[in-house]
Structures are given as structure tokens and as C-alpha cells.
Design brief:
Elements: E1 9-16, H1 33-36, E2 38-43, E3 51-60, H2 63-70, H3 77-84, E4 97-99, E5 104-111, E6 123-126, E7 129-130, E8 149-150, E9 163-167, E10 171-173, H4 180-184, H5 187-198, E11 210-214, H6 221-230, E12 234-239, H7 242-251, E13 255-258, H8 259-262, E14 267-268, E15 271-272, H9 274-288, E16 293-298, H10 305-311, E17 312-320, H11 334-337, E18 342-345, H12 351-362, E19 370-375, H13 379-387, E20 394-398, H14 411-421
Helix pairs in contact: 2-13, 5-6, 5-12, 9-10
Length: 427
């Protein structure tokens, strides 16, 4: 690998700065990523100190790629411009194109000066925390560093491409029993779920905790459900269809609420409905034998947040990230302040948390939630699936891998966990 020449350019999935206003005036749900995401030849960025160029075998779709593709809540070119001004090394990120993507599995092609842990030929995955670590605030928890960014969203040269530029401290070993596309799928969402639910920076989940998991069969919730079950907690899984309920049960969850069947309407005509919160809480107690929720795994945001605060037990915890249904949360503060509940903001994960989450993948304790795989040229359709919530689990993308099923090194461990690995496939 070290002897291979680095191409001067490569194919990457990009959004373009001069199209940032293409959806102006349109409703969010009407915006189509297929129109804004383009497969384009781009120059290979110069490799700097502490960086690596990875030949990307596979990647995956996260909701931040949807946001990037529809230019919401802001155009990501504002992130790239701000980053480009921060240093000479970062200037290359400020381009009129943005190569997107915050997941990858692949092979290290080159490493820059100062990189000693990784070498060309190493099979790796990458987590999406890009951080300079020059500020003292980042050295207790790198997520607190003011220069912390999400790679492929707030930086350029992301993973939905043939090559990617990462910092060497984003790299982790690829799970030997997984294919390239399976190994690429957990990255962002697996580490996010680990910090939000398991880490002491998040909820610090313990055995016996009752955990409410919204979207429990989805790309993020599917990992939260696994962590709850692995950690001896009791997940209460909220889903939106019988098919998604069945996925949760196949993972081992016993307490499942199908929102579509129950018909909860937490909002009516722009006003929250406390009577629906109470009906939802009654359903939870019915399932748990009278127990309230110790921890809420929150990510839908505006649509569900009022209900989440209400159903949490006295002194319980609501951990929140994302807000895919809207950022402006509303809740009745009496149910927070008078019952001493806590809201914890959680955003991705630091390198240690990402490494621990990836280690559990490598040991076969946590499994990918990959459901469907697209070729790189059809990334727009993959992003549309996620935008329209037409998917289960994670949607993968093949980059340099010519077909699915490649990259497995440990066939014995794979055979042991094959049913769990394929649990979400073709759903």
C-alpha cells in the first residue's frame, strides 16, 4: 500500500456552494437530496501533520448528511469557511464544494508527519470527531474542546467518497468479522449511543434502569436498544410500525410501544397535549408493572420532548441529541424542576468512548444495524430514504468496494453472530 501512488483526484459525493439557495422557500420535507448531492471529481487534499488519507471501501448515511444536502438549519459552507480561517492547515477545507459523509471503513493509504500508530495497509474505521486539542478545555473530555467539529459535516473531505482525509486520532481497527459495508455502518451512531446512554458523560446507565428509547429500531435507537439489553437495563422501545416492533423484539426487547397503533398525538394545532403525555405514561406503567422511566434516550426533539420530560421518574434523566423533528423544544417545567429531573445534552463521543464502542463491535457484543446498501452514485437516493424515514437501521454506501460481502477476515466469529449481523437486512 505504501508503494501505491496517491491519485491526484478522486470521486466524491458533494454539495456545491453555488446551489446553497436551491431549496429556498420550500418545506423541509419537500427538499430532495437527489437534486443537491453530486458525484464529482475533486482534487486530493494535501496531507498534513497528524493526518491520514484512507482509501474508502464503504460509508453510510447519517442524518447530518441529510441536513447538509438540504442546507438546513444552515449551509455547511459557513462551517467550512470558519474552519478554513482557523489555521494554515485547515485552509484547504474551505472549498466551493463539500465532500460529505461521517462514516467510513477502508484502508490507510498514507499518513502524515507525526503519525506513528497507523501505517499504510491498516484496515480501519473512522469515528467522526475532528478536534485540534490545542485548548486545555479539550484535555479532560475532547468533546468540550472549542475546536471540536464533526468530520464530513463541519469539515471537508468526508467518507462518502473514494478517498477521505481524517486526523489519525479518528482511526480505529476495523472489526475483522464484518464486511466493509457492515463495518462502516456503526461509526457515528454507535459511539453517539454509547456516550448518551452508557458513559459517565451521558446517562451513566446501570443494571435495572428502565430506559425509554425513541425510534428504537432506527439507526441510533437500534444501538441504544442493544446497549440497554447488554447492560442489564430494561428498554421500553417506541417505534412507528409493527415491522419495527418486531425488530426490537428480535433484539430481545420485551416492552414495545407502537406509536401508530396507539395513535398518540402529542401536538394538536401547534399546541402540546398533556392528556396525551398522561396516556403515554399510563401505557409505560402498564408495560413495566408500575415503574416510571429512569432514563429517556431522546433524539426526535420537538415532537416528543414534552412527553419525555413528563414520563421520566422523579430524579430521572433525559439525555438528548439531534432533534430530527425540530430544535425548539417545549416542555412543562413544573415536571422538571419540582421533581428534580435532569436534562443532559449529548453530542457524539470522545476518542475513548468511540474506541470502547468500536471494541464492543469487534468483540461481537454489539452488532451493525445495516439494512440496505447503495452504490456511491446513488447516495442521493440513500439520503432521501433517511430524510423520508423510509429506512430501517442504517443505510450503507459502497465506495471502492466493488460489491457487498467483501472484507471479512474472521469467519469463525462471523458465523457465531451471523443472525444478529443480518437482523436489519432487507427490511
Amino acid at each position: 500500500m505504501a508503494g501505491l501512488p496517491v491519485p491526484e483526484s478522486y470521486q466524491g459525493m458533494v454539495v456545491l456552494a453555488d446551489e446553497a439557495d436551491m431549496f429556498a422557500g420550500m418545506n423541509t420535507k419537500e427538499k430532495n437530496p437527489r437534486k443537491s448531492l453530486h458525484l464529482q471529481e475533486v482534487p486530493t487534499p494535501e496531507l498534513g501533520p497528524g493526518e491520514a488519507i484512507v482509501a474508502v471501501m464503504a460509508s453510510a448515511i447519517n442524518y447530518n448528511t441529510v441536513w447538509t444536502s438540504i442546507f438546513e438549519p444552515v449551509s455547511t459552507f459557513s462551517f467550512l469557511k470558519r474552519y478554513g480561517k482557523s489555521s494554515e492547515l485547515a485552509r484547504k477545507h474551505d472549498q466551493p464544494y463539500h465532500v460529505v459523509g461521517s462514516d467510513l471503513s477502508g484502508v490507510v493509504l498514507r499518513v502524515g508527519p507525526g503519525v506513528t500508530r497507523w501505517k499504510p495497509g491498516d484496515e480501519v474505521v473512522a469515528h467522526c470527531l475532528s478536534v485540534e486539542l490545542e485548548d486545555p478545555q479539550g484535555h479532560d473530555d475532547s468533546m468540550m474542546d472549542p475546536q471540536q467539529r464533526i468530520w464530513g459535516f463541519e469539515t471537508n473531505f468526508g467518507g462518502l467518497a473514494e478517498l477521505a482525509l481524517v486526523k489519525s486520532n479518528q482511526l480505529m481497527p476495523k472489526a475483522a468479522h464484518l464486511t466493509w459495508e457492515e463495518a462502516a455502518a456503526p461509526g457515528l451512531v454507535n459511539a453517539t449511543a454509547y456516550r448518551q446512554l452508557v458513559s459517565h458523560h451521558g446517562a451513566g446507565m446501570k443494571q435495572g434502569d428502565t430506559v425509554l428509547i425513541w425510534g428504537a429500531s432506527g439507526g441510533l435507537g437500534g444501538y441504544a436498544t442493544q446497549y440497554a439489553l447488554n447492560g442489564g437495563a430494561i428498554p421500553v422501545c417506541v417505534v412507528s410500525s409493527p415491522e419495527k416492533a418486531e425488530i426490537c423484539r428480535s433484539m430481545g426487547a420485551e416492552l414495545v410501544i407502537d406509536r401508530s397503533a396507539e395513535g398518540y398525538e402529542f401536538w394538536q394545532d401547534g399546541v402540546q397535549q398533556p392528556s396525551e403525555w398522561k396516556r403515554f405514561g399510563s401505557k409505560i406503567r402498564e408495560l413495566t408493572g408500575g415503574d416510571d422511566i429512569d432514563i429517556v434516550f431522546e433524539h426526535p426533539g420537538r415532537e416528543t420532548f414534552g412527553a419525555s420530560v413528563f414520563v421520566t421518574r422523579r430524579g430521572g434523566t433525559i439525555t438528548t441529541c439531534a432533534s430530527t423533528s425540530g430544535y425548539m423544544h417545549e416542555y412543562d417545567n413544573r415536571y422538571l424542576w419540582m421533581t428534580l429531573k435532569r436534562i443532559i445534552g449529548s453530542h457524539f463521543a470522545n476518542y475513548r468512548e468511540s474506541w470502547e464502542a468500536n471494541r464492543l463491535i469487534s468483540k461481537g457484543a454489539i452488532h451493525p444495524t445495516l439494512s440496505k446498501v447503495y452504490p456511491l452514485a446513488e447516495t442521493g437516493q440513500a439520503a432521501l430514504d433517511v430524510h423520508k424515514n423510509l429506512h430501517q437501521g442504517k443505510v450503507g454506501v459502497l465506495c471502492l468496494a466493488p460489491e457487498e460481502g467483501l472484507g471479512v477476515r474472521d469467519h469463525e466469529l462471523r458465523a457465531e453472530h451471523l443472525e444478529a449481523i443480518n437482523r436489519f437486512r432487507d427490511r
